[in-house]
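Q: For a teaching handout, I want to show students what a protein-ligand complex looks like in token form. Below are the inputs, and the small molecule is flavin mononucleotide. Please produce the holo structure.
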Amino acid sequence: MKIMCVVGSRRKKGNTSILTQEVLKPFEAQGVETELIFLGDYDIAGCSGCEGCRDSYKCLINDDMQKLYPALIKADALILGSPTYFYNISADMKAFIDRCYCLEVFDESDRSVWMGISEALGGKYAAVIAVCEQDNEEDMGFTVEAMVKPLEALGYRIVSVVKALHAFAEGDVSKNDRAMKEAEQAGEKLLKTLRLREKIKNSIGKTFPGMTQGEKNLQ
Ligand SMILES: Cc1cc2nc3c(=O)[nH]c(=O)nc-3n(C[C@H](O)[C@H](O)[C@H](O)COP(=O)(O)O)c2cc1C
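A: Here is the structure, written as tokens, with flavin mononucleotide included.
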């Protein structure tokens, strides 16, 4: 089992970072492999819309995003965290998400038919964290939807969404007991979901012989 966590704020000690690391705690306590990515450490250009990825599933832009694709494919679950910047996700998170376009495959003759590579490989799971300064949820704007909708399109099932309001300065969110608890619970739920998947995979063959082999063929 492997978990990938992507932080869309450049403040490494900021609120998004604190909350996303809280989500990781239940995994770390169980010795599950986790990878924490601060997008600010990576040079990731916006998608150029060249459609060069159409047949190969490979993005043609040669930058740091190439380092993240293998981890994305391998991870069983993805945690995305972004601060609200003008009612939306940060530019770093938007660039990261847009560059996942190569992991979305369309039918050649009917572009209303598409599938995420994750979905084709058997489904993956995700949690989303959003942090904003204002007290009113409306001031978070589209931050949650801007992560949830692309993740769903890419074949992830969203297990938990954590919204933390009223966090401005670095570390403010640590004082928000409710948000910290919700982040930890989001991690626990994601872990339980993955354990349930393991249990089903390991036992399905008893009821339906051959099913486990079919699953292996997909991987
Ligand atoms: C460019 C920018 C735009 C922002 N826009 C909003 C906004 O639309 N609504 C809001 O409530 N907070 C907004 N904020 C405040 C941040 O969301 C808030 O400080 C958050 O805690 C930052 O998270 P971080 O500590 O992970 O960087 C904005 C901050 C910046 C720097």
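A: Two things your students might notice: Strands lie at 2-7, 33-38, 77-83, 104-106, 114-116, 124-131, 156-164. Residues 3 and 34 are 5 Å apart (CA to CA).
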